[in-house]
Amino acid sequence: MKRYERLADQIAALIRSGVLAPGARVPSVRHASRSHGVSPSTVFQAYYLLEDRGLIQARPRSGYFVREHARQLLPEPEIGSAQAQPAEVDVSELVFSVLGSLKDPDTVPFGSAFPSPALFPLARLARSMAHGLRDLAPQAVIADMTAGNPELRRQIALRYMACGVRLPPAELVISNGALEALNLCLQCVTQPGDLVAIEAPAFYATLQVLERLKLKAVEIPVHPREGIDLERLASSLTRLPVKACWFMSSLQNPLGASMSEAKKAALYELLQRHQVPLIEDDVYAELYFGAQSPRPVKSFDRDGLVMHCGSFSKCLAPGYRVGWVAGGRYAEQIGRLRLMTTISPSVPAQAALADYLQHGGYDRHLRRLRHALEAQQGAMLAAAARHFPADTRVSQPSGGYFLWFEFPERVDSLQLFQLALAQGISLAPGPIFSATRRFGNCARLNYGHPWDARSEQAMATLGRILAAF
Amino acid sequence: MKRYERLADQIAALIRSGVLAPGARVPSVRHASRSHGVSPSTVFQAYYLLEDRGLIQARPRSGYFVREHARQLLPEPEIGSAQAQPAEVDVSELVFSVLGSLKDPDTVPFGSAFPSPALFPLARLARSMAHGLRDLAPQAVIADMTAGNPELRRQIALRYMACGVRLPPAELVISNGALEALNLCLQCVTQPGDLVAIEAPAFYATLQVLERLKLKAVEIPVHPREGIDLERLASSLTRLPVKACWFMSSLQNPLGASMSEAKKAALYELLQRHQVPLIEDDVYAELYFGAQSPRPVKSFDRDGLVMHCGSFSKCLAPGYRVGWVAGGRYAEQIGRLRLMTTISPSVPAQAALADYLQHGGYDRHLRRLRHALEAQQGAMLAAAARHFPADTRVSQPSGGYFLWFEFPERVDSLQLFQLALAQGISLAPGPIFSATRRFGNCARLNYGHPWDARSEQAMATLGRILAAF
Predict the structure, then answer these.
(1) Does A447 touch chain B (CB under 8 A)?
(2) Could you give all domains of chain A from N- to C-terminal order, each with its CATH number?
(3) Is ipTM over 0.90?
C-alpha cells in the first residue's frame, strides 16, 4: 500500500468513527503534511482519493470538507428482538419468486446479490485462464479434481497466514463456491431434524439450505453494527440441543454488522465450552472499508471447531464458482462429501485463479474495488437521506455492498417489492431473510453497481412509493 | 463420416457379432471393392483403420485376418442372482480406501475411473476457452449462473435432437458434472429412508450417494450384455415401495451392458405403469463402438418421468465439471435444488464447451476416441486371455473403457487389490460395486489408457498373482 493510500485510510477511519463529522473541515494540506510527517503532495493525493471515494469534497477557496452523507444521516435500525424458538423453515418459494424477478437486465438491480461485473478484472482473469491452462499438465485435469489445484491451495493458505491464521494445508477443501462449502459443512455436523442457530436477519440461502436439509432454525438477533446477540446465543445453547451455528462474523449479509475481535473471541469460547461447531460464512471478508482485514473467529480456533468458508465470487471472479473451506477437524469428511456430490470444482477455473493470485495484482484490484464500493455506499446513503421518509432507519456497514433499510411500520416490504418492480426497480424484501417471515417493513438494497443518474432516479421513485404507504 | 470409415464400421460390426470369427480371413480388397461398390483405395483405407483399431491384422502375402482377441477368448460373466431385498448402504469407507490408493501417478491405472487425459483435445479446449471468454458479455458471468450458457444449452439440445429426443429447452439443467445432476435428481424424488432400485453391480458413486442421502437400495441384477433383469425389476416394483430407479441403460458401469431398444421401451412402459421415475445415468453414451449412438430410455418418455443425465467428463473435457440433466417434469425443481447447493457450474467452463461444440470438431474427436478405446479394449482382452487363469470370465462391452472380470471363486478381489497395489498396479475390486458386498471374486479394469509394454507387463503380473490364489 502506498503512503498516500495509508493516509487516506486513516482519515476515512476518522470520518467513519465520527471524529470528523459530516460538514466538518478536513485539516489543511499544510497542517496534515506537518502532523503526519509526509510531503504536501502525498496529502493532496490522499485527499483526491478520499474525494473519489465520495467521503470529502472541495469547496472553492475553503479547502476540503467531510461530505454530508459520509456518515449516515438516517439513524441505524433497531436491534431485533426475536424469541429464539426453534422454527421449521419454509421460505424457498418466496425467495425464488423474488430471485425470478431479477432476470430482466433492464431492471435497476438493487435486489441483486452480486456487485456489478464491471468492477471485476474479467479481461485479466481471462489472461490468467490462458496461462493457467497452458501450464496445466494433462494429468492435472484428473488429479486436481481430488486434491484441488496445489498452487491455488498454497495461495489461499498464504492469505490466511497474512491475516494471522496458521492453516495446515490438509484443512483446506476447495469447493464450488462458498455455498457448496456451507452445504457440505452443515451436512457434516447435522442430521435431518437437528437444530441450527442462525442469524436474524439471515442470508436467505442459509434458510433455503436449512429447509432443503430438513433442519430447524433458532434465530439469534443481530445488532446492525455489533453482530449477533451473544447472551441470546448463550441462553439458546443452554436451553436447546443446538447442533451447529452458521454465522457471518464480519460484514454480515444483510445487515453488514461486524463483530469486534473481543466479541469474536468470546463467541469462540462460548461455542468451545458447549462443543458446538461454528460454520463461519466469511465471503465478504475482503470487502472491508477500514485499514485492515477483519480477523475471523477461525483465528481463535484451538481445536478445529470452526469451519471457515470463503470465496472469490464476491470480490474477484463471479461465475468462476471457486470457494473453499478451512474445515478444522471436519476437513477430511467435508472433502469426501464433496467427492460424493460434485467431485470437484472446475479445474480450469482453479488454474485461472491460481495464476491470477500469483501474478494478477489481487491486492491492487481489491483496494480499487473497496474504494468504489465505499463511494457507492456514500451515494446511496445520501440519496436515501434525500428521498426516503425521515423515519427510515438504515445500516451503515464498514464494507460489502448491501444496505439494510428499516422503514416505518406502515410499510409492507413485499408490497413495496411488487410496486417497485412495476417501476423497473428490484430490491430484496425483508421477509426472505427470516425463517419466521419477520422484517416485513425492511429491505436490503445493493449498492454494488456504479452510481449514476438512473440509480438516483430509482431512489427517488422508491421514495415516492414509500411516501404513499 | 467418410466412406472408408463407414465401411470400416460395417466390417467391425460383423466382427463384433461373430459373423467374422477370430482367425477368419477378411474379404480381399478386390472382393470387398466389388461387393460394397467402392474403390479399392477406399477398402485399403478402411482396412488400415481396422488394423489401427486392433481388429484385423495383415499376414504377409495372405491378406487380412480377424485378430484372435477381436472377439473375446474368455467367456462372459454369469448373470448375477442377487435376491432383491432392501439393504442399508454402507460402502463409502471401502470406496475411499480404494480411491485413495490411486493417487500415486506411477501406479498402472487399471483402477481409475477416467480414461487417459492424452485422449482428450485439451489444447483445442483451451483455445475454445479463450474464445468463449472473449465473447462473454460481462453481465453473462452473473446471468449464466442461473440459466446456464444459452449457446451450450442450444448445442446440447441439438445433440438430443440428432438422436431422436425432442427436448423443450426448459427441461435442460446444466450441472457440475453428471454426479451433481444425479444427486439432485435423487433428492428431488426421494426422502431419507426411501427405497431406490439400482443395478448389481452398480457404479460405486451410486452407492455412496444413497448412503449419504440415507436411502435404501434394492439391487437388480445386470446381465453383462443385455442389462438389468426386467422381470426381477417388475417383481420388486410390485412387492416394494420403490420411489425411484437409477439405471445406466447403455454401456453400464462396471459391466458395459447395453439394453436393446425393445428392452428400453419395455423398461419405460413398466415404470410408466408404476409411475416410478427413472434417473437415467447415460454418461458413457458417446463412447459406443458401433455405427450409431445407443438410443436412451428418455427417447420413449411420454410424460416427463425420465431424468436423463449426461456429461462431458468422460468423452471430452474431464475436470471441466460440466454435465446436465434433461429433467422431464422435475426440471424446475432440479434447477432450484442446484441454485440452493452450488448455484451454478463454472461459467468459463460452460463458455469453453459452448465454443468447442460449435467450432471444435466434437464428432471428429469422438470418432478418434472411440477407435482408440476399441483398440485398447482388444489389447486388454488379448492380454487377459494370455495371462489370466483359463476359468476367468470377462465382459466384452460395445463401448466405454471398462472390462468386468469374474475370476474363479477362490480369488478374493480385495486381497488381489492389495497384492496388485504392492506391485504398483491399481484395480477396482468387485465389492465396491455392491451394497451387499457381493462380487468378491470380481474386478473392474480400465483400458482407457494407451496400451504399451507396461500395460502388458502389468497384466502378466496380475496373472501371476491370480495363479497363486
Answers:
(1) no
(2) 3-70 (1.10.10.10), 92-118+364-467 (3.90.1150.10), 121-359 (3.40.640.10)
(3) no
